[in-house]
Amino acid sequence: MKKLLSVLLLFMGIAAQSQINKVSIQASGLTCSMCSNSINKALKSIAYVDKVVADIKNSSFEITFKPGAPISFDQLKKKVEDAGFFVAKFEVSIILNHVLVSKDAHIDLYGTMYHFLNTDNRVLNEETTIRILDRGFVSTKEFKHNSKLTSMECYQTGVMGKCCDLKNKSAGVRIYHATI
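Predicted structure:
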Protein backbone atom coordinates (compact mmCIF):
# COMPACT_ATOMS: atom_id res chain seq x y z
CA MET A 1 0.00 0.00 0.00
CA LYS A 2 2.83 2.40 0.86
CA LYS A 3 4.49 1.74 -2.50
CA LEU A 4 1.23 2.42 -4.34
CA LEU A 5 0.75 5.68 -2.45
CA SER A 6 4.37 6.69 -3.18
CA VAL A 7 3.97 5.97 -6.90
CA LEU A 8 0.65 7.86 -6.93
CA LEU A 9 2.24 10.79 -5.08
CA LEU A 10 5.15 10.88 -7.53
CA PHE A 11 2.78 10.71 -10.52
CA MET A 12 0.53 13.40 -9.11
CA GLY A 13 3.56 15.58 -8.37
CA ILE A 14 4.77 15.26 -11.96
CA ALA A 15 1.31 15.96 -13.35
CA ALA A 16 0.68 18.85 -10.97
CA GLN A 17 -0.13 22.23 -12.38
CA SER A 18 0.21 25.19 -10.09
CA GLN A 19 -0.43 28.88 -10.35
CA ILE A 20 -0.22 31.36 -7.50
CA ASN A 21 -3.02 33.91 -7.81
CA LYS A 22 -2.34 36.04 -4.78
CA VAL A 23 -0.81 36.17 -1.33
CA SER A 24 -2.50 37.62 1.73
CA ILE A 25 -0.26 38.80 4.55
CA GLN A 26 -1.53 39.87 7.95
CA ALA A 27 1.06 41.97 9.77
CA SER A 28 1.42 42.50 13.49
CA GLY A 29 2.58 45.58 15.32
CA LEU A 30 0.68 48.15 13.22
CA THR A 31 -0.74 51.09 15.16
CA CYS A 32 -1.75 53.59 12.48
CA SER A 33 -2.26 54.21 8.78
CA MET A 34 1.38 55.36 8.48
CA CYS A 35 2.46 51.84 9.52
CA SER A 36 0.23 50.33 6.87
CA ASN A 37 1.59 52.75 4.28
CA SER A 38 5.16 51.74 5.14
CA ILE A 39 4.44 48.06 4.47
CA ASN A 40 2.42 48.91 1.35
CA LYS A 41 5.37 50.86 -0.14
CA ALA A 42 7.84 48.11 0.78
CA LEU A 43 5.76 45.40 -0.91
CA LYS A 44 5.16 47.53 -4.03
CA SER A 45 8.93 47.95 -4.43
CA ILE A 46 9.30 44.25 -5.37
CA ALA A 47 9.67 43.86 -9.14
CA TYR A 48 7.24 40.92 -9.51
CA VAL A 49 4.45 42.54 -7.44
CA ASP A 50 1.63 43.86 -9.62
CA LYS A 51 -0.75 45.27 -7.00
CA VAL A 52 -1.05 45.62 -3.23
CA VAL A 53 -4.41 46.25 -1.58
CA ALA A 54 -4.19 47.23 2.08
CA ASP A 55 -6.95 46.53 4.60
CA ILE A 56 -6.04 48.86 7.49
CA LYS A 57 -8.81 47.55 9.74
CA ASN A 58 -7.43 43.97 9.62
CA SER A 59 -3.75 44.91 9.18
CA SER A 60 -3.65 42.79 6.05
CA PHE A 61 -2.33 43.14 2.53
CA GLU A 62 -3.54 41.29 -0.56
CA ILE A 63 -0.78 41.02 -3.14
CA THR A 64 -1.17 40.05 -6.80
CA PHE A 65 1.71 39.36 -9.13
CA LYS A 66 2.87 40.04 -12.65
CA PRO A 67 2.13 37.08 -14.95
CA GLY A 68 4.88 34.48 -15.20
CA ALA A 69 7.11 36.11 -12.60
CA PRO A 70 8.82 33.87 -10.02
CA ILE A 71 7.62 34.68 -6.50
CA SER A 72 9.62 34.51 -3.27
CA PHE A 73 7.61 34.13 -0.07
CA ASP A 74 10.76 34.83 1.93
CA GLN A 75 11.30 38.13 0.11
CA LEU A 76 7.71 39.21 0.78
CA LYS A 77 8.14 38.39 4.48
CA LYS A 78 11.46 40.25 4.59
CA LYS A 79 9.89 43.40 3.11
CA VAL A 80 7.32 43.42 5.93
CA GLU A 81 10.09 42.94 8.48
CA ASP A 82 12.27 45.61 6.86
CA ALA A 83 9.36 48.02 7.28
CA GLY A 84 9.56 47.31 11.03
CA PHE A 85 6.75 44.77 11.48
CA PHE A 86 6.14 41.03 11.71
CA VAL A 87 4.10 38.58 9.67
CA ALA A 88 1.27 37.10 11.75
CA LYS A 89 -0.42 35.15 8.94
CA PHE A 90 0.67 34.29 5.39
CA GLU A 91 -1.84 32.72 2.99
CA VAL A 92 -1.29 31.71 -0.62
CA SER A 93 -4.16 31.37 -3.10
CA ILE A 94 -3.03 28.77 -5.61
CA ILE A 95 -4.70 26.85 -8.43
CA LEU A 96 -3.95 23.15 -8.15
CA ASN A 97 -4.78 20.52 -10.74
CA HIS A 98 -4.59 16.85 -9.73
CA VAL A 99 -2.33 17.45 -6.75
CA LEU A 100 -2.34 14.83 -4.02
CA VAL A 101 -1.65 16.27 -0.59
CA SER A 102 -1.38 14.23 2.55
CA LYS A 103 -0.49 14.69 6.19
CA ASP A 104 3.24 15.09 6.90
CA ALA A 105 4.16 14.67 3.23
CA HIS A 106 6.42 16.63 0.90
CA ILE A 107 5.41 17.77 -2.56
CA ASP A 108 7.15 19.70 -5.31
CA LEU A 109 4.92 22.25 -7.05
CA TYR A 110 6.86 23.61 -10.01
CA GLY A 111 10.17 23.81 -8.23
CA THR A 112 8.87 25.01 -4.86
CA MET A 113 8.88 22.41 -2.12
CA TYR A 114 5.99 22.20 0.36
CA HIS A 115 5.57 19.98 3.42
CA PHE A 116 1.90 19.68 4.36
CA LEU A 117 1.05 19.41 8.06
CA ASN A 118 -2.29 18.63 9.65
CA THR A 119 -3.90 17.97 6.26
CA ASP A 120 -6.22 15.14 5.27
CA ASN A 121 -5.22 13.01 2.27
CA ARG A 122 -6.94 14.40 -0.80
CA VAL A 123 -6.52 15.35 -4.42
CA LEU A 124 -6.94 19.07 -5.08
CA ASN A 125 -8.41 20.26 -8.38
CA GLU A 126 -9.33 23.84 -7.66
CA GLU A 127 -8.22 27.17 -6.32
CA THR A 128 -7.02 26.49 -2.80
CA THR A 129 -5.77 28.68 0.01
CA ILE A 130 -2.77 27.26 1.81
CA ARG A 131 -1.31 28.79 4.94
CA ILE A 132 2.46 28.92 5.38
CA LEU A 133 3.46 27.75 8.88
CA ASP A 134 7.21 28.40 8.93
CA ARG A 135 9.13 30.44 11.50
CA GLY A 136 8.50 34.13 10.76
CA PHE A 137 5.27 33.37 8.87
CA VAL A 138 3.30 32.68 12.08
CA SER A 139 3.69 33.72 15.72
CA THR A 140 6.36 32.03 17.84
CA LYS A 141 3.62 30.39 19.90
CA GLU A 142 1.92 28.95 16.80
CA PHE A 143 5.25 27.79 15.35
CA LYS A 144 5.98 25.90 18.58
CA HIS A 145 2.46 24.39 18.59
CA ASN A 146 2.82 23.28 14.95
CA SER A 147 6.14 21.59 15.70
CA LYS A 148 4.12 18.87 17.43
CA LEU A 149 2.52 17.99 14.05
CA THR A 150 5.74 16.51 12.63
CA SER A 151 8.94 14.90 13.81
CA MET A 152 10.77 15.80 10.60
CA GLU A 153 13.77 18.10 11.04
CA CYS A 154 12.86 20.24 8.01
CA TYR A 155 10.17 22.02 10.04
CA GLN A 156 12.78 23.44 12.41
CA THR A 157 15.35 24.30 9.74
CA GLY A 158 13.15 25.33 6.78
CA VAL A 159 15.36 23.36 4.42
CA MET A 160 15.29 19.83 3.09
CA GLY A 161 17.30 17.32 5.06
CA LYS A 162 17.46 13.58 5.56
CA CYS A 163 13.70 13.51 6.16
CA CYS A 164 12.96 14.57 2.60
CA ASP A 165 13.05 11.65 0.20
CA LEU A 166 12.00 13.20 -3.12
CA LYS A 167 14.29 12.37 -6.00
CA ASN A 168 16.29 15.05 -7.80
CA LYS A 169 16.22 17.35 -4.77
CA SER A 170 19.26 17.94 -2.64
CA ALA A 171 19.59 18.76 1.02
CA GLY A 172 19.54 22.47 1.74
CA VAL A 173 16.69 23.33 -0.66
CA ARG A 174 14.10 25.71 0.89
CA ILE A 175 10.90 23.95 1.91
CA TYR A 176 7.72 25.70 3.03
CA HIS A 177 5.48 24.07 5.61
CA ALA A 178 1.80 24.52 4.96
CA THR A 179 -1.72 23.50 5.82
CA ILE A 180 -5.02 23.83 4.00
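Summary: Strands lie at 17-28, 49-55, 60-65, 86-97, 99-101, 105-109, 112-116, 122-124, 127-132, 175-179.
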